[in-house]
Amino acid sequence: MKPAxxxxxxxxxxxxIVLLLGLIQGLKxxxxxxxxxxxxxxxxxxxxxxxxxxxxxxxxxxxxxxxFDSKIPAGAVIESDPTAGIQVKLGRRVYLTLNxxxxxxxxxxxxxxxxxxxxxxxxxxxxxxxGRIIKKQDIAKDFVIAGEFNGRTLxxxxxxxxxxxxxxxxxxxxxxxxxxxxEWDVYEDRLRD
Length: 193
Description:
CATH class of the largest domain: Alpha Beta
Helix content: 25-40%
Number of strands: 12
Largest sheet: 5 strands, mixed
Order of helices and strands: HEHEEEEEEHEEEEEH
Number of domains: 2
Strand content: 25-35%
CATH topology of the largest domain: Trypsin Inhibitor V, Chain A
Distance between the termini: 104 Å
């Protein structure tokens, strides 16, 4: 190989190696290679507190979703992604799920002529809270006669905010029936259903 060609290839290789090393260093600086920070515990903090902490750490905050949990203060962080303890790079987005400020509405299920047990399961599954159990004289023991909210009888399909406390009027199993009464026929019909 001629000395001029050899010199060209050595110079070409040298320049490419220098460019490659420069590119690698530039990428390390740009991507903060080897530098990471740990996501702090954010669950339970208000959105403002969480945002202040993440801003000071050089992380970007994004509200991803909101859910409703009556046990957590409104606007508090329910979860973060990435979760606490995960190592991330500066500028990383942290997605927060917040507790809703207003509870969503849920439909009242059927609350008449069903057992107390079924009524309580149906109400809790919709996000309602069982309040007082009001005993009322009725032949159907432990069957719900009606559901009430603030003294008002509720209707099936009516909408109330989740977390609403609902009182249940429940039969005692005792009734003033006479044998020749038509009420006795109604009771027997209830038993057949």
